[in-house]
Amino acid sequence: MVDRWPNVAVPSLPTLDVEPRIGGVPIPREVGLYVCGITPYDATHLGHAATYLAFDHLVRLLRAAGHRVRHVQNVTDVDDPLLERAAATGTDWRELADSQVGLFSADMAALRVVPPDVYAGVVESVPLVVDAVARLLEVGAAYRMAGIPDVYATVEHDARFLRTLPVPMGDAVALFQERGGDPERPGKRSRLDPLLWRAERPGEPAWDGNELGRGRPGWHIECAAIALEHLGGAPTITGGGSDLSFPHHHMSASHLRELGHGEGLLTMHTGMVSLAGHKMSKSRGNLEFVARLRHEGADPQAIRLAVAAHHWRTDWEWRRTELDDATRRLDRWRTAAVLVEPGSSSTLAHELAAVLADDLDTPAALGRVDEWAGRVLGGDPRARADAHAVAAIDALLGIDLQDLPRRRR
Ligand SMILES: [Zn+2]
Fold first, then answer.
1. How far is the CA of 251 from the centre of ligand 1 (A)?
2. What is the pTM of this model?
């Protein structure tokens, strides 16, 4: 396994009687959650942070509400973009991946994200992918190219794939091209067929693929194979940024069906974060990094609050004022936390759980804490006697009001 970041202690709360729903869909008591992880070459910009914080809020809510959650996340620690970046910078691809995984882990730990139960790299998962590709060949859902023995999935074998395309075919082909696909490669049966196994090329890393020959995994089958291995079937919830909805999640879902594992319950796609008017992207160079903000002295908990002020479904724009607002909000909450007195009420915990249970509405949750802080600071004895308020803010929102930044101690 790829090294996870250290566990984050989550305080326990009184029983919360809520039935969480996402997009109106009730979440079952047993949840297999699969969140697509990073390709480690540009970690961790705020778009990444927004995605992993959204799923952290989900995991925290579900566990606090008594659900059993098994959270699996992958790391695409070998793929074309990583190899291209390594080549462009004259770095060994393994060193680049290791250093970026380390940076991502440090950011996640600073943001107090609860680590996944399983954190699996693709390099260690190659045998799972080899088995999955071999099965897809057996059932006629995949084929070998003539000449170079790359293996592709044939999307026409999966009737549901084409029937459920989220956009018209022309747009699907364009998105596939833009997001790592190769629609124009000669010899493919359909332009949307995704790569499952890339045969070894000179100068590229490769692993033993048994009857597939030496090579390396395609991206979509990687996530399908890791989910199957560690969740035992299709994920209840599949998550990632909205730019993964097509083709990535559509392709992985098709692979799972073809492997005989049907549909998960739902997908959750988080909104894109933009900077200076455009979605943060490597090609445009308009990235803001969690590590840079931290090194400039930003309190990681304020970064967390700045992100949580936006609903996970929405696209939004990062501005420096977001961080200033969040820092002021955090200071106010901390001041209120000091004034809490022993008591038995748990009003805020129930209020937070109720708004989060409705499509994980973190902006509404922050509003509830603002109101609580206002009552505490105004001297309201009932608000001050809410003995579980500070624990609820920690358990559900990941903000530990008793953990002050070092420079303030
Ligand atoms: Zn994935």
1. 10
2. 0.96
